Amino acid sequence: MCSKKEDLVTMAKSSKKLPNFIWATILLLIFMFGGQIIGGICIIPIYLTLYMSRGMSSNLSLLELFINLSSFLFIALLVFVRVKYIEKRKISTLGFSKDSWLKKYTKGFLIGFIMMAIVVLILFVLGCVSLDKNPIQPVGISALGGVMIILIGWMIQSATEEILTRGWLMNVLAARYNMVFALIFSSAIFGIMHLFNPDVNYIAVINIILVGIFYGIYVIKTNDLWSVCGMHAAWNFAQGNVFGFEVSGINVAVSSIFDFNLVGSETISGGAFGPEAGLIATFVLLLSIIIVYVLGKKGYFIKNEN
Questions:
Q1: How many structural domains is the chain composed of?
Q2: Which chain regions cross the lipid bilayer (predicted)?
Q3: What are phi and psi of 139, to 5 degrees?
Q4: What does the alpha-carbon distance between residue 106 and residue 48 come to, in Å, rounded to a whole number?
Q5: Residue numbers of the domain that contains 215
């Protein structure tokens, strides 16, 4: 972990350009839409080539999902260009220290997976989960190849959202204003980014904001982005391609280990949006926020650095 003098906010303050919150929001939109446009231009030829390929044509849904997730990479590249050539600082100042990076990512991945597994376990105990006995997509052992391909896509997509909202937005706003404002504002933006997803509701938006607060506090306490990249990837991956639920309202279970359905009260389970839109997820996220905050106060992350 970085020392106090080398925390991410201090490093962000070395930036030659610190945007105010309005300009930072505009830049975020430029990164998102610009990256998607560039990604589309670059990926369409690849997509068409694979589409015409005899071996991939039968797996078009899997291919489409992987390409859509992987195209987020171009958003991250625009952020990197901004940080390196306009703000004049190293990419590592976003939270990408080389020290024990794989250990940090793996630890985060396990935390994210366990959090989603706890949500599903509670839903199962409450009778809000049923097993689809006639899945239309590959499941179980036959789905492992597709599941691993989609995992790579989730790793790219999730890391990009963390680079954008926690690595860049939160830290530049903390450097210009203060950390409390930066945490709340970046988490709110993270929630707003999902406002137009299918079947979204107010619980879903609140929960996604809580996810942002949890990840944000973790980054603040550890000065590390690797871990939350892993958490985010595992949360989405477990939700969609292990348990077979929708992820933020989007059906991503083109291949999954299990194919569960959410039943009963949508307020509790999340319904068509997925577990993220249910009160069980709210409970797990609030508990996680409290735990990481208390551990940070007690110096746990300092004692266990690297």
A1: 1
A2: 21-48, 60-81, 108-127, 139-156, 177-196, 202-220, 241-258, 278-296
A3: -135, 165
A4: 34
A5: 4-303
